[in-house]
Amino acid sequence: MATRSTIMDTNSFRAEDAAALDADVRALTDKRSKVLGESYRLFYRKPVHLVRGKGQYLWDAAGDKYLDVYNNVASIGHCHPAVIEAVHQQMMQLNTHTRYLHEGILDYSEALLATLPSAIDRAMYMCTGSEANDLAIRVARAYSGGTGIIVSQEAYHGTSDLTSGASPALGSGQPLAATTRLVPPPDAYRVNAPDLGNWFADQIQQQIDDMAAHGIKFAGFLADSIFSSDGVLPNPPGFLQQAVEVVHRNGGIFIADEVQPGFARTGDTFWGFARHGVIPDIVTTGKPMGNGIPVSGLLAKSDVLAAFSDDIPYFNTFGGNPVAMAAAQAVLTVIKEENLQEHSRVVGAQLLAELRTLMDKYACVGDVRGAGLFIGFELVTDRESKTPDKTLALNLIEKLRENRVLTSVAGPYGNVLKLRPPMAFQVQDIDWLVGALDRSLAALTQGR
User: Fold this and answer.
1) Residues in contact with 230: Cβ distance below 8 Å, sequence separation at least 6, in sequence order
2) Mean pLDDT, to the nearest integer, of 194-222?
3) H-assigned helices in 338-389
4) Beta strands 416-419 and 375-379: pairing type?
5) Which molecular function term from Gene Ontology is one that the record holds (predicted)?
6) Mean pLDDT of 145-157
């Protein structure tokens, strides 16, 4: 029997929970089961029926207000007026594909490339992060002449055939490609190594050597620079440098999947990879760049991209369409005008400090780590053994839902709360989140 997917099944509604639902919610779950494919999942034992969003807040059908601490896709906040207006205005003018000339895609590309190291000087657009990573793998193979891709043990990079074959977080029911190799996550909390960077680089080299032993030529290393699916592993800054050196020394390229850590999210830098002082060969982005509008990008060094594009035409029908570019431009403008990178850094640091006070109160809080508005909150049975407490983590997110706070879990053990709110999250929201965590943990650990 296949194991459950860590990102799809860990925090999900089960059929056995249906009897406890209110009649209206039960009717919706029943209807979903009749008309939608069975691969879909719902969050929570009692699913949330959401009808409205604004900024960092969501409202359900009963009018209850929730604090969203999970939805990074609405990166600058749900229903941001600048995105709504930009999309509305462009929809009234034109929406078509990229085989016609249009200023929007060119103006946006210039503005976006200006945020990146100068060596990264070409842009291509798709509709989803999966498509961006799919193309990145194809480019890596064309450039290197190899096929082998290395990812971390709980990585998630997409749902296409190529990307699902390099996404172990989807579970053993989704087989990995024969050319995929996994490295253990660079977990500073659990890895006992004097230099995490050297340790991680050695893991990369071991897998490259294993590929060679099996007749597979190495093509590249694909990583989300905050290792979000592995449990949010941001520190120490710089630990990726040795790994990227190993990748290049072995003829491969480094693909930075910035769908989650990019666009000012981590505070210290605009791009997550920049916290490590490395320059990727390819950067991929996803729907947060458009605040949820289906748009994604591949940004690359021209010589790396040329290995693919000089021989193979690429066309993604509505990738980079004028409406998507208008949304993306609005997001980029808001990030700059509202100074959201500095906001993420300052408010994220305050949130991290407040969350760490809970470690003094609850022995089950093993570690709290993060960068900007991207934080991992790890639950353990005891701090000495660091034994993961998945049951407590799952019960905690249900309690938080009762306290009108929405989030979920990550990591190989399903015991890390992934706190990743829209960047509209404000200082005054810290009390709501930390207070809800405090009350929920008190209720769940009473008598321990």
Assistant:
1) 152, 153, 154, 155, 185, 187, 410, 411, 412
2) 98
3) 340-361
4) antiparallel
5) pyridoxal phosphate binding
6) 97
Contact 261, 227 (CB under 8 A): no
Which whole number is the average pLDDT over 91-97? 96
Beta bridge partners of 255: 222, 282
CB 259 within 8 A of CB 284: yes
Alpha-carbon torsion 10, 14, 16, 22, what sign? Answer: positive
Give the DSSP letter string of 410-435: ESTTS-EEEE---TT--HHHHHHHHH
Contact call for residues 105 and 325 (beta carbons, < 8 A): yes
Using CA atoms, how far residue 164 sits from 130, 170, 186, 221, in Å, is: 9, 7, 22, 15
Q: What pLDDT, on a 0 to 100 scale, did the predictor assign at position 9?
A: 66
How far is residue 38's CA from residue 19's CA, in Å, rounded to a whole number? 19
Calculate the average pLDDT of the chain: 94
Which residue type does 388 have?
A: P
Tokens of 336: 């700059």
- CATH architecture, range 81-337: 3-Layer(aba) Sandwich (3.40)
Query: What is the rounded CA–CA span in Å between residue 418 and residue 411?
Result: 9
At 160, the pLDDT band (50, 70, 90 cuts) reads very high
The residue type found at 294 is P
CA distance 368 to 284: 27
| Residue pair 200/153 in contact by the 8 Å Cβ criterion | no
Please name the fold of domain 48-76+340-445. Aspartate Aminotransferase, domain 1 (3.90.1150)
Q: Which two tokens stand for residue 421?
A: 């709110």
Tell me what pLDDT residue 371 has.
98
Around Cβ 101, how many Cβ atoms within 10 Å?
7
Bridging pattern class, strands 365-370 and 57-60: unpaired
Quote the pLDDT of residue 33.
78
Q: What is the pLDDT of residues 73-86, one digit of tens each?
A: 999 999 999 999 99
Tokens of 424: 């509209």
- Give the start-to-end residue ranges of the domains of the chain: 1-43, 48-76+340-445, 81-337
Torsion of the alpha carbons at 266, 268, 270 and 272, rounded to the nearest 10: -50
Which element (helix H / strand E) includes 93? none
pTM value? 0.94
Report which secondary-structure segment, H or E, holds 67.
strand 65-68
Identify the residue with better confidence: 447 or 333.
Answer: 333
The amino acid at 322: P
Q: How far apart are CA 343 and CA 332, in angstroms?
A: 15
Pair of tokens at residue 200 = 């991680």
Mean pLDDT lowest for which of 23-37, 87-101, 204-218?
A: 23-37
DSSP state of 312: -
